[in-house]
Amino acid sequence: MADDANTAPIHDRRDREQAQMQNNKQPFPRYLPELETVGSDIKELLVKAGVPEDQLKPHIIRVEFDGAPASNLYGSDLSAGFIELGYELFLDKDKFGATFIPADIFDPNSNLKQLDGKIDIIQASSFFHLFDRNTQIELAKHVIALLKPQKGSLLFGRQVGRVEAGEVTAQSNPNRVLFRHNEATWAEMWAQIGKETGTEWETDSQLTSTRFTSPIKEQLEADGVRQHQFTVRRI
């Protein structure tokens, strides 16, 4: 059984998540002030297409914990099965008010289309880094379609980055190329996206230490691997 900083017992998975969040002293750059925009209608979308539900759910819980009403939260996963596994993991299907939409964000006719132009904030962690740079640009354009076409619309998240940005080969598939960003290449990519879409975006990102434990942490960081936290705001 896990204990919080005051050694009080924690009995529920939600309690454990919240205790971890309270101990997290490094929020996403410029994310927390945006919670004041969360109000009526659809305000939040957490896009995690193709990422296991056990990674998706904590992010949604985090935003709710930070102050957003659960009824305003939307999450998407490529597989409905992962969504069901998430409910089984957290035991909250009958009490968690967020809406989950099984969909492929790359499919222009997916169920996400109903949210086009209605979202204020999108959280997309462990997602962009799954693709090469050209596919990341395509992904970003789908994200832009979901966001409200107005100043202040926000994308934030985290991903695997590198001190020396560039292409790497996926360990699971030697024929698959991924692109790892640093602050400069992330900003450059969004400048290109802005030109191609007729929009303008301000990026704020930083490379931080990875969350892995030793000895994997030392091995990865010696190779330049870092965690890349980012926000992207429409201006």
Question: In words, what does this structure look like?
Answer:
The protein has 235 residues and is α/β, with parallel strands linked by helices. The chain has six helices and nine strands. The chain has helices spanning 13-22, 53-66, 80-90, 133-146, 183-197, 216-222; strands spanning 44-47, 73-77, 99-102, 121-123, 154-162, 166-170, 173-180, 201-208, 225-234. The strands form two sheets. Strands 3-2-1-4-5-9-8 form a seven-stranded mixed β-sheet, with helices on both faces. The model is unreliable at 1-27 and 31-53 (pLDDT under 50).
Query: Structural class, judged by helices and strands?
Result: alpha/beta
Pattern of helices and strands? HEHEHEEHEEEHEHE
Number of distinct beta strands: 9
The neighbouring-strand order within the major sheet is: 3-2-1-4-5-9-8
Shape: globular
Distance from N terminus to C terminus (CA atoms, Å) equals 46 Å
Low-confidence stretches: 1-27, 31-53
